[in-house]
């Protein structure tokens, strides 16, 4: 008499939900529009995993925290034991440390490696459908089930999938969230009190992975302008780094004012779909993993017959935490960029006191070492 969850999005939040929900006894189907998993190139994200995320992943992998070299998470990641904020004065050619946290105890991973690890360890009751583009859903009249339409990208065929729960793990531009919050559209620079708009977070970053084993890079036409722009926009050190990076790409970053709910009937938001955030507090991946773990525990606690209580508890545990963390990450971003703040002068790294730098430390992120009740037993 098991229940079935359909997860839209097979990135970190989606795969994490597949682990957590199958551990709670649910059958899980994941729909992912990409045609296959990433193949080896680590281009893109370098992720910081906090100790709680590592512990949760260990539980999904069935290994202990202290398994050392036989621990696949340990092998796929690097220690990130110190967190440091550094300032540079280009004119004086000086760099100095603003703050330093010696007991950081995070692990650093390439997105690809973490994704591969989570994907490769999924249990058999998870069906992962690559190349399936979710297009729409509708709820049964009694809200007992949800039916999804998805396009199989290779054949153009439309398939229908029925489940008891729809998990939206479709990222910061989530089309599922959009169904419930049609006003939650991208607005440049606009802030409206009371309505949570998706917000372009004031900058975009050029990103890429520099392969130190390659002496000369081969510039393509597409990246040529990006590299020329680097010369005029960035510090010489960054411009040099970007010029040496063979495949940079533009990664626009969004955040959003916190939502006031995370579920509607039997549709629930997780990961970036639930709380788009800027990267300044290394939270988004950790939040996604924690969302999944808490959702799984709530479903397990309330049993498949009481979905409403399970989703209510998930929301009450996660919403206050993610809301504060998103706003804190936004604030830290504004501090780091020297932008205006409502309660103090713009941060100036050259004049900043120890107290001024205090807020930059990761350990001051709200709920930094907090473990939700649902994960304690
Ligand atoms: C380019 C990039 C760089 C990043 N860098 C960092 C970083 O350095 N550090 C960090 O902590 N975090 C980083 N992040 C964020 C981090 O990867 C995410 O927070 C984390 O992966 C969890 O996000 P998510 O799974 O909720 O969403 P995403 O990772 O955005 O995944 C959403 C998934 O949904 C799929 N999808 C969307 N719509 C549909 C649809 N209609 N049908 C089927 N599938 C659909 C997408 O293909 C995608 O796989 C980065 C994200 C991106 C995109």
List its salient traits.
FAD/NAD(P)-binding domain, binds flavin-adenine dinucleotide, 377 residues, 3-stranded antiparallel sheet, alpha/beta
CATH superfamily membership: FAD/NAD(P)-binding domain
Characterize the overall form.
Answer: globular
Strand order of the largest sheet: 8-2-1-12-17-16
Work out the count of structural domains.
Answer: 1
Question: In words, what does this structure look like?
Answer:
One of its GO terms (molecular function) is FAD binding. InterPro entries: DHP_3-monooxygenase, FAD-bd, FAD-dep_OxRdtase, FAD/NAD-bd_sf. Mean pLDDT is 85; it is low at 188-195 and 214-221. Strands 8-2-1-12-17-16 form a six-stranded mixed beta sheet. A three-stranded antiparallel beta sheet has the order 3-7-4. A three-stranded antiparallel beta sheet has the order 9-10-11, with no helix packed on it. 32% of the residues lie in helices and 24% in strands. Helix 1 (12-23) links the parallel strand 1 and strand 2. With 377 residues, the chain is α/β, with parallel strands linked by helices. The structure holds flavin-adenine dinucleotide.
Entry summary:
The protein has helices at 12-23, 51-61, 72-76, 111-120, 175-180, 221-233, 236-243, 284-302, 307-336, 354-358; strands at residues 4-8, 27-31, 46-49, 78-80, 83-89, 94-101, 106-110, 126-129, 132-139, 146-152, 158-163, 165-168, 186-187, 198-207, 249-256, 263-264, 267-269. With 377 residues, the chain is α/β, with parallel strands linked by helices. It has a single domain (4-77, 111-209, 247-375), classed as 3-Layer(bba) Sandwich (FAD/NAD(P)-binding domain).
């Amino acid at each position: 008499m098991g229940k079935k969850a359909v997860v839209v999005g097979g990135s970190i939040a989606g795969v994490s939900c597949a682990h957590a929900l199958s551990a709670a006894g649910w059958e899980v189907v994941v729909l992912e529009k990409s045609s296959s998993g990433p193949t080896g190139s680590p281009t893109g994200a370098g992720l910081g995993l906090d100790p709680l995320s590592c512990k949760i992943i260990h539980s999904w992998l069935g290994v202990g925290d202290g398994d050392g070299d036989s621990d696949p998470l340990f092998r796929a990641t690097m220690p990130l034991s110190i967190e440091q904020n550094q300032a540079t004065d280009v004119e004086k050619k000086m760099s100095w440390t603003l703050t330093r946290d010696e007991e950081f105890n995070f692990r650093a991973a390439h997105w690809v490696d973490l994704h591969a690890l989570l994907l490769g360890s999924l249990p058999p009751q998870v069906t992962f459908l690559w190349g399936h583009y979710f297009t729409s859903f509708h709820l049964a009249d009694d809200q007992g089930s949800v039916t999804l339409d998805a396009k199989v990208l290779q054949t153009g065929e439309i398939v229908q999938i029925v489940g008891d729960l729809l998990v939206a793990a479709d990222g910061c531009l989530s089309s599922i969230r959009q169904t419930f919050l049609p006003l939650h559209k991208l607005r440049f620079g606009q802030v409206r009190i009371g309505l949570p708009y998706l917000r372009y977070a004031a900058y975009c970053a050029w990103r890429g992975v520099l392969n130190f084993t390659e002496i000369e890079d081969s510039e393509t036409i597409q990246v040529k302008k990006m590299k020329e722009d680097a010369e005029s926009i960035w510090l010489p050190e960054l411009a040099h780094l970007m010029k040496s990076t063979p495949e940079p790409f533009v990664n626009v970053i969004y955040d959003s004012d916190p939502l006031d709910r995370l579920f509607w009937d039997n549709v629930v938001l997780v990961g970036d779909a639930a709380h788009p955030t800027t990267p300044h507090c290394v939270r988004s991946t950790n939040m996604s993993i924690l969302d999944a773990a808490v959702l799984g525990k709530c479903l397990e606690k309330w049993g498949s017959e009481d979905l409403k209580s399970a989703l209510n508890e998930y929301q009450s545990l996660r919403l206050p935490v993610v809301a504060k963390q998103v706003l804190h990450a936004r604030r830290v971003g504004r501090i780091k960029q020297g932008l205006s703040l409502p309660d103090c002068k713009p941060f100036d790294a050259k004049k900043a006191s120890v107290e001024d730098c205090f807020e930059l430390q990761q350990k001051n992120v709200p709920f930094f070492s907090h473990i939700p009740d649902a994960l304690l037993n």
